[in-house]
Specification:
It is built from nine helices and 21 strands. By secondary structure, the protein is α+β, with helices and mostly antiparallel strands. It has a six-stranded antiparallel sheet with strand order 6-5-18-15-8-9. Strands 14-13-10-7-16-17 form a six-stranded antiparallel sheet. β1, α1 and β2 form a beta-alpha-beta unit. It is globular.
Length: 382
């Protein structure tokens, strides 16, 4: 007769300095212990110390549970790859884009129950010049925005801090020249931003590509080649659901590896931190890390929630996005014919955006041309 089952053991590190820290760590710990997980608790650690703690815990624990934001998860990535320990996520940051991609709820107790349930999913990891990223690595506007998104801005504005930082960054950002090489192709561009996505969401709910998956073995790349800021204002709502590639000013690429060079070294942001500079080689490491995630998460169910909670694959008669209490004024517009990507007739096959004030918007799903299903997540394999 076998004895009582031994509890699983986990290293729990909670970023108590994050906006949602403090007592939330204790609430999560209660749920995890009730779920049969014994905890080795540690306070918030600096990146090097966090990686060392994970490495030293290998062989002593069966999982690592981190409470914090995307920066905390990014800092732990090298040690998670080295040790092979599964990752449990308690979203306590400002954006929590990796959690959003995986369908992990913002509610800390619900997130803790997902870990206790024990469903594992293997996900890809992006890498640029040896630095890992879960969500997106980018240069240009977003790198400048990282410098504007200070801790004070996050504390004061919360998720709205990303909009504040973007507005500030725009005032000092100018287009730059770059060369993008992938799969034998060379693109010489004048761009405001180049972003390379491993997951789906970044920047507090922006989507790098509508159908991006974090386990597809692909990188989704875009280059924002606008020459007037007013054009960026028109394109910007499409970034909320990853439909920006329909615009002529946005070059999109899907690949496994891409190289970017610039005339002078430019800073690169990985998951919200400046970690390296150009020249840069980006690549994907398929199925590099195991994470605890819902078995019916948005990507596994065939779609993802929009930043405001709707299904990413809404039926043709539904509208996407969300509204906020108190919204009263709605402005509807469509991209001018001269700006549409590949428009060949006068039909209404292009998205019509309804700005709902603040950050809600709607786009009828039937208005956007669908990508062919045969190439939905294909990448060139070298």
């Amino acid at each position: 007769m076998s004895g009582p089952q031994q509890p699983r053991r986990a290293l729990l590190v909670v970023n108590e300095k994050s906006r949602l820290g403090g007592e939330l760590g204790d609430r999560a710990a209660d749920i995890l212990e009730q779920g049969g997980i014994a905890l080795d608790r540690m306070p918030d650690l600096e990146p090097d110390a966090l990686r060392d703690a994970i490495r030293q815990s290998a062989g002593k624990v069966e999982m690592v549970i981190l409470g914090g934001g995307d920066g905390t998860l990014n800092a732990a990535a090298p040690a998670l790859v080295e040790t092979g320990l599964p990752l449990g996520i308690l979203p306590m940051g400002t954006a929590n884009d990796l959690a959003r991609t995986l369908g992990i709820p913002a509610d800390i107790e619900a997130a803790a129950r997902i870990i206790a349930d024990g469903h594992l999913r293997r996900i890809d990891l992006g890498e640029v010049n040896g630095h890992p990223f879960f969500n997106v690595a980018s240069l240009g506007l977003s790198a400048r925005m990282t410098g504007e998104l200070t801790g004070e801005v996050k504390r004061r504005w919360g998720r709205l801090g990303y909009a504040v930082a973007t507005i500030r960054a725009l005032s000092g950002t100018r287009p730059f020249h770059a060369v993008i090489r992938h799969d034998g192709e060379v693109h010489r561009v004048r761009t405001m931003q180049i972003a390379v996505g491993n997951g789906r969401y970044y920047g507090s709910g922006m989507a790098v590509e509508a159908e991006a998956r974090i386990d597809d073995g692909c990188l989704d790349v875009y280059s924002l080649e606008v020459d007037r800021l007013w054009k960026l204002a028109l394109i910007w709502p499409a970034f909320r659901v990853g439909r920006h590639g329909m615009w002529r000013e946005v070059r999109t690429i899907r690949c496994r590896e891409v190289e970017v060079t610039t005339r002078r070294p430019r800073s690169i942001n990985t998951d919200g931190e400046i970690t390296t500079r150009t020249p840069a080689l980006f690549r994907v490491r398929p199925a590099a890390i195991a994470v605890f995630a819902p078995p019916d998460g948005p990507e596994e169910a065939g779609g993802a929630p929009s930043p405001d909670g709707d299904s990413g694959d809404a039926p043709p008669t539904a509208s996407r996005g969300g509204t906020f209490p108190g919204d009263r004024i709605r402005t509807t517009f469509a991209p001018p014919a001269s700006l549409r990507a590949g428009a060949t007739d006068g039909s209404t096959t292009w998205p019509i955006f309804s700005w709902t004030g603040r950050f809600g918007w709607r786009s009828p799903a039937s208005a956007a041309p669908a990508r062919p299903s045969s190439s939905r997540r294909s990448c060139t394999i070298s």
